[in-house]
Amino acid sequence: MLVRRMGYFSPSLSIKTSPFFSILTKNPFPFHHLHPIQFFKPIHTKSPQTHLFSMNQKPNFTTSAAFLQEPTNTKTLSNRSAKKARRDAPESVLRHQLDQCSKRGDLQEAIRLYEEAKLNNITLNVHHYNVLLYLCSSGSGTEGCGIEKGFQIFKQMGVNGVAPNEATFTSAARLAVAKQDPEMAFDLVKKMKSFGVPPKLRSYGPALFGFCEKGMADKAYEVDVHMGESGVVAEEAELSALLKVSTFSKKADKVYEMMHRLRASVRQVCEETVGVVEDWFNSEYAAEVGLQDWDARKVKEGVVKGGGGWHGQGWLGKGNWTVVRVEMDSSGVCRSCGEKLVCIDIDPKETENFANSLAELASEREVKANFVQFQDWLQKHGPFDAVVDGANVGLITQRNFNFSQLRSVVNKLRQMSESKKLPLVILHKSRTTGGPAQHPNNKKLLESWKKAGALYATPHGSNDDWYWLYAAVSSKGLLLTNDEMRDHLFQLLGTSFFPRWKEKHQIRMTASRDDGLKLHMPPPYSIVIQESEQGCWHVPTLTGDDLEIPRQWLCATRKKALHSVFR
Question: Nearest-CA neighbor of 198 among 223, 157, 229, 162?
Fold first, then answer.
């Protein structure tokens, strides 16, 4: 099972058998007659208007007096004294101590602090409970009494009227899966909506992975549907698990669906996922599935409609699959089956919409007047066949900025351009006025680029990434940079369009003593899962970078005796 690299989440939960399991099998909650999620149902009091969790009014949640009740002499206390009073409050001290337990993974000490707090009548808030539940639901907490204690704490939280949040439900769901009850985990996720708590991807993990581990494919699909209805998008870990359980359950249509969802959202897969794909193609059932005769015209229409690289008409052909790990040659021809991969087109309208979204984001994070001024300048001097991330090129081989290196690259790009127009060089203003820029030759170079309208100096305090990316996208040109574009700024751009654009437009560089800087143009084919018109599959992995190390692909083909008919 893939391990999600976020926070403290691992879908693979394993626990040792304990006497508590036999009790839970008969009664999932031996210490209370209610199911755990019922602890958070509205509790009726003498007055029907005072339900703890009324859907018609705001709940009257218990909160810490130390945080909400100001001492009578607050006005006379200095800010420093007030802060010290809050910091030294029992609730604050307990929070700090529990946080330290969380860092160390020390469940026993956390439980001791919890019991001590109850004896001293210290009021716990949602953060206190969440730390305790996290410790009970992870690592050593899922062994021995950790599960039982976790549910007792979860129950107490409801009794005390502390409002649960997403982290609460997620930890409780992990507790449920730790005792082999993914159904309870799913019930907890479904319960979140009634509390106005939107589930996250990690909220579904315990239920989805739990059902998949048990081979309960239909229940896993039910969780998947619920995710979609909640606007939660499955990522590689979830799709890989669904693919695996579909293979195990011999559900060929679902395997096909998951392959295409991986193609659309993941593109290149990790080693664990490619292993799951291999298992499918090597299975006896996979050899039996597929159309012996198919409508080639319909398949062709599917390819055209989808933009190339897939048709979506189902498994084509019958018989055993030949499955090998392979590399592509420079033109995208498979070295195993000889099939040529295609370059999947990008809709020009998508590019235009992406450029507009990029401009909006940049205007929000930069001084708006500065970026608008750049857009006006670009309108006057553009478009450009290529845009250069000047700082990235000038510093690629050494610490000191190398203008000679930058000039060489700019001249290469000009020679490669059909229009023979200079590429646009984006440099921060400090790079154009200080340091090496003061050298007479470099001054002359910068001035010539400036006169030609091929240099833009970004203002002080700006992030030049926004400028060179927007220039390349809006110009529909190439972008020269070795920046992997993976930091927070680029995560804002999403995972749908941006990876496809980058693959088709980014020029990368390698440096060596013998050859100097070598430019690597975008590949003439798309590095994404591809399904051919003959029913063959090629799956790119994350192994290799297509620069110094060739990328590894999985090639799955049937025997050449394929049949197709026109109807």
Answer: 229
